[in-house]
Fold this sequence. Notes:
heterodimer; A: alpha+beta; Arc Repressor Mutant, subunit A; 15 helices; elongated; B: alpha/beta; Amidase signature (AS) enzymes
Amino acid sequence: MSYIPVIGLETHLQLKTVSKIFCGCSTTFGAPPNSQVCPVCLGFPGTLPVLNRQALTFGIRVALALGCGIQPRIVFHRKNYFYPDLPKDFQISQYDLPLGTDGFVEIGKRRIRIGRAHLEEDAGKLLHSAGYSLVDFNRTGVALLEIVTEPDLTSPEEAHLYLKTLRGILEYLEVSDCDMEKGSLRCDTNISLRPAGSAADSLGTKVEIKNLNSFKAVARSLAYEIQRQAQVLDEGGKIQQETRLWDDAAGRTEPMRSKEYAHDYRYFPEPDLVPFAVSPEEVEKVRGNLPELPPQRARRLIEQYGLSEMDARTLTASKGTADYFESCMKAAPASAKTLANWIAGELSSQTNARNLESVAGLPFPPGHLVELVGLIESGKISGKMAKEIFAEALSSGQSPGSIVYSKGLSQVTDPSVLQTAAQEVLKEHPQAAADYRTGKGQALMFLVGQLMRRTQGAASPAISQEILRKLLNDKEKRG
Amino acid sequence: MTEELIRKIESLDPKLHAFAWFDPAFAREQAKGLEKGGISKGPLWGIPVLVKDNICVEGVPTTCASKILKGFRPPYDATAVEKLKKAGAILLGMANMDEFAFGSSCEYSCYGPTRNPWDPTRVPGGSSGGSAAAVAAGLTALALGSDTGGSIRQPAAFCGVVGMKPTYGRVSRYGLIAFASSLDQIGPIARTVEEIALLLQGIAGFDPRDSTSGNLPVPDYQKELEKPVKGLRLGVPKEYFVDGLDPEVKKGIDAALAEFRRLGMSVTEVSLPHTEYAIPTYYVIATAEASSNLARFDGVQYGHRSSQGKSLLEMYTQTREEGFGPEAKRRIILGTFVLSSGYYEAYYGRALKVRTLIKKDFDRVFGSVDCLVTPTSPTPAFPLGEKMEDPLTMYLSDIHTISVNLAGVPALSVPCGFTQGGLPIGMQLIAKPFAEETLLKAAYAYQQATGWHKRQPPS
């Protein structure tokens, strides 16, 4: 049978407030274990939480950017469960009154609904060794915003695109590092299958997948899980409601020991934090400070630089990439189209190959691209040469101009130089010349290739072709 | 002064057992520090204060009289303690209490029970029994207690001293090891109303570390104390004078009401109609919060850790099995149950609603009176062991004090006589939120007119 996957995503975003959400400890990543802790975030008896207003402002900023409504009254709840990385054995989170509700993220033409976005504190990190485990509480109490979609996604690819789009928006907001490797962006998925043709609200039993360390892992795990669940259903089995862990190396999900994690969280309002109001003025102030977000920026790029909608979307998907493009345009008003092609093509594929967040991470600053495109557009180098120079610039860090200079790679456009070389090529390949004259057009391309070879690729292909054709035609006339 | 007190504590406390921790070197060191100068000589300078064992003192064992916190020395001071240190008070040590403040008799302590200085066969009340007994026996001038359902007022009444539960939010809870966060409040215990005013002045005020503390100016309580009381409107809630009220207690309160009239105050009967729901409401809310607050005692970071556990789950369960006493276990189980999915609405949800009704009772009544007068406890101090095995009867002994915590209003217990057997009787005064000065001036006028506070327990 064929099935339609029903997918929902929960994304945890670490907010880069200077201090933790309920105490004054620093949030810097990578500090020695347990060096950024105090009695409050360690949950020592008698300590009390005090809300960091910056975390609230950041939370509102994200919620607004996702089109959410903002709760007028902020209430925290305690989520109770025992675990060694949770020093109070409860997590201060939000429950029935989340900070933001009913937002959306647009992916292509589709709107993925955001059910809720709520604030909570992060837990610590367990470091397991043989026979014992250690806890690092540095992360404990770092402000998190949990962003939960409705089950609107229908494929691993869509989930991947949603995450990329969401991260794009988040980058623009500058409230988080959005770095999955450092754990400042984390994602759990929920997936169920329903038979194709069944009612859209007839949901199957859902499985939660955890331990997803990259967007790729999200997509792969969903693809695996779709296959696994379909097989179970096809064999007449039942899907068990459970949490499964993604094993990236093995490429499969494994059930978590469910007994240990069968929680009744016993939520109740956190009595140590009084509910407080967020005024409409406060919300409007945050809204007023929102930056230009990807959809608006794409529109502007189309108007300002005449980019195609496709190029504009590609460039704005990541803030770093769009910033890169605009710095190029500012440095030298080269052809926007050529720049966009280079950024979306060569630069992006290198970015992906190197697992970077955006083209801005490449050792190839905007100035270098402007130089490279300038060399192409002035005819000094060919497109093929440009690719080689780009590769060279990436590995050496040298500017394209200096590479061209030091290697003598500049394209030969001087007709008198090319004329002599072309005559020699014709002498060496009389057969090809004859073929051309008898109407075999492709023989000309062979001769151009030979000319390029003779000049170690430096000959301008366009001029070479012109000169060769002229020589052949002239000979014909004379002959 | 300090040396004399140290000798007295060393000779009397082995019998009374009011201290959970006492180290003469700790008191001496502070006294020496004071002599060196540096702290201006305010009213608390050099005054000994005993701290209840659930209020954190940096570097000093603070254990809530529980085995599970044995050896725990907080790395910080509670705000109240920090303020006392800055004012030059001498912290004497830690006072015995019911484990985690769960109890009304000071018998549920891992250190064993404290005795009542007026009759060593009886309880001093609880949970701040050690604090009240030490003040009554003259082992300290002042003491800090905590009050979640009567834990300052009832032992003050049983021991013949004055005790106040300030308004929720008047004194910072930072550093008070939480029992029920929405009900807990630190408060003063002393022999006289003036001393209560003095100690309250020292610890009251807004604290940015406690989001629930009130950002309001603190009055000059010493000045307020002596303001005229003529014309003060007193209310007597009829629901507090029902079956089970000891006739001698009733007699004491009646006599006090007559005294209040003589002092020019008016006395009228009022009604707090939801009083009968206070105990069940309290035991749902207080245990729910306690079950969550006490989760952190899991053997991971500090305190007791069982050597028995072979897995994480076993470490948790064995640690808590060994570390908590019977009343703590009872309340954790009860609190866990009322928050459980499927039961939340029927218990916790409903209790929150009733709590609002109880609060409204007080709001309404304070529209027509300035202060309520009730017995602090239906009976005088009961014999040791009498209610240990009967938790429900123990819970019912808090009937007069519990509503006050649910409503968040301030209340004070002041001695108002003695039984024929020589046991103190306590009277409770209740005022509207942040009107501690009303309690102080009414109690002070009464104290000056009657002189019960001059009586001392047999030594």
